[in-house]
Amino acid sequence: MKRLLPLLLLPAFLCWDQAAGQFVQARFVSSAYGWQRYDTVGQKVDHLYGFQNVQLSVTSGTLSFNTHFQGFNDFSGPLKNDPTYRLYNISLKARSLFDMVDVQAGRFFVFAGAGTGSMDGGLTTVRLPFAPVKVTGYYGLLTPPGQKAELIGDAADNTMLGIHVVGQPVEEAQVSVSYAKKTMAQETYRAIRADSATGFIPYTVEMHPAPRNEELFSGDANIDIAGIAEGYVRYDYDLLTEKSSRFNAFGRMWIMDGLAVTGEYLQREPRISFNSIFSAFAFESLKETEGGVEFRVIDGCFLVAKYGTVSYGDESSNRITLAANGRLVSASVTRNVTYDGEISAANVNMSYPLLDNLVTPSLLVSYASYKFAENAPLDNALSLGAGALVRPLSSLSVDAQVQWISNPIVANDVRVFLRASYLLNQRLDLF
Q1: Which of 161, 65, 86 is nearest to 119 (CA)?
Q2: How far apart are CA 318 and CA 338, in angstroms?
Q3: How far apart are CA 386 and CA 361, in angstroms?
Q4: Topology adopted by domain 4-86+174-183+204-428
Q5: Is residue 36 within a helix (H) or strand (E), and if so which, with residue range?
Q6: Residue 252 forms beta bridges with which residues?
Q7: Among 305, 287, 378, 374, which residue's Cα sits nearest to residue 339?
């Protein structure tokens, strides 16, 4: 935590605009998750996890400072540990410089077409003044394991860079292309070797594997014609293997008011680094096709029916989904049949606000019948959940839920989840 304190003081010095003042928004979320489980042979396991999340943003004019960090501890159970801290975000951002440039620096999450992930570095977005086009470029270091509040080691071999270009040729459509490159260092290890120079006497050698590499090119397009159709298509190409990495297409067409048909296709290759040993193995593409019908009964209430298939090489599976989604109740029934088993499941989720949204109780019921092999007997699993959300103030909410599950492996599993969230909004004039 001592490492974080100097960083949290940055807003007072960096977000300073005498004309605009400072707008501070902070969210504090404290939660606890504990459970007690007895398996079918009578063994008992207890856990109690504690989490403290803090999200803070300070904005002044075109400058903003943002951070998000979490404290975690396992207070009991076989994995009991000392407190740990995760720093997810700490960055400074300047918006609309020269009415066309945004700049961000620090630790943050990148979502730019083919490039996704958390990094320590910088990102710049430029909006072209003569066309509806924006260009985003970024470069930085990968974050260390566990989101530690420090820079990763082997900085030269843990990098991430890319560019993302987004355009809107017409009001109903948006297209983009992107390029991303990621280098990931592998851990050194020790191995036993023997050769003729030593008389074949075994000796220990420290191995330094080459960094794993990924290099992708991606293009995607969105179209949305209000009341008629909408769609999405994406294609990823692996520049190192010189093969297609992913193709995804989704479409929805309105047949009449309240009635639409949908279709989706996905083909994906395993995400294996070019110079990984696993890239030498033979593997098959995953292909998934799904079609469905959506019907709006009334505003806020939909009926959905879908049928899909998933294939991997010579094997395939089929699934059927029927669902009803409303403001207060949602329910679904699914059935999956694969080459090595099947599962049928039903879920119901209900909630109802009381006392002018002061209290919102909820109930969840789930039942499944499944088997892992064609000739195996059917097993059953039942889970129940009951809870309530209490919001005494617009800035304060308290959430509690009790969960219970029983299946052939777990005779009795009871879990309790508690969470309190407080939101602070304040405008200051410190300078």
Answers
A1: 161
A2: 6
A3: 8
A4: Porin (2.40.160)
A5: strand 22-39
A6: 230, 262
A7: 374
The ranges assigned to domains in the chain are 4-86+174-183+204-428
C-alpha torsion sign, points 154, 160, 105, 31:
negative
- Virtual torsion, Cα 165, 169, 172, 174, nearest 10 deg: -10
Q: Report the alpha-carbon distance of residue 330 to residue 108 in Å, rounded.
A: 35
- Torsion angle of the four alpha carbons 298, 300, 301, 304, in this order, in degrees rounded to the nearest 10: 120
- How far apart CA 401 and CA 360 sit, in angstroms, is 12
pLDDT, tens digit (0-9, with 9 covering 90-100), for 161-193: 999 999 999 999 999 999 999 998 877 777 777
Q: Pairing between strand 115-127 and 133-142?
A: antiparallel
Under 8 Å between Cβ of 76 and 46: yes
Give the residue, 91 or 82, on which the prediction is more confident: 91
36/321 Cα distance (integer angstroms): 33
Average pLDDT over residues 125-153: 93
What's the whole-model pTM score?
0.82
| Sign of the CA dihedral with 222 first, then 223, 227, and 229 last | negative
Q: By 3-state DSSP, what share of the chain in percent is helix, strand and coil, each rounded to 5?
A: 5, 70, 25
Helices then strands, each counted (H, E), the chain: 2, 24
Own/partner pairs, 293-298, CB within 8 angstroms, 24+ separation: 293/259, 293/260, 293/261, 293/262, 294/252, 294/259, 294/260, 294/261, 294/262, 295/258, 295/259, 295/260, 296/258, 296/259, 297/258
Mean pLDDT of all residues in 297-304? 89
Q: Which two tokens stand for residue 230?
A: 């909408």
Query: How far is 399 from 391, CA to CA, in rounded Å?
Result: 9
Distance, in Å, from the CA atom of 309 to the CA atom of 410, rounded to the nearest integer, reads 31
Each residue's pLDDT tens digit, 353-362: 999 989 999 9
What one-character-per-residue DSSP string does 197-257 give? GGTT--EEEEE-PPPEEEEEEEEEEEEEETTTEEEEEEEEEETTTTEEEEEEEEEEEEEET
The whole-number pLDDT of residue 19 equals: 47
Confidence of residue 77 (pLDDT cuts 50, 70, 90): low
Provide the 3-class DSSP secondary structure of residue 78.
coil
Confidence of residue 4 (pLDDT cuts 50, 70, 90): very low
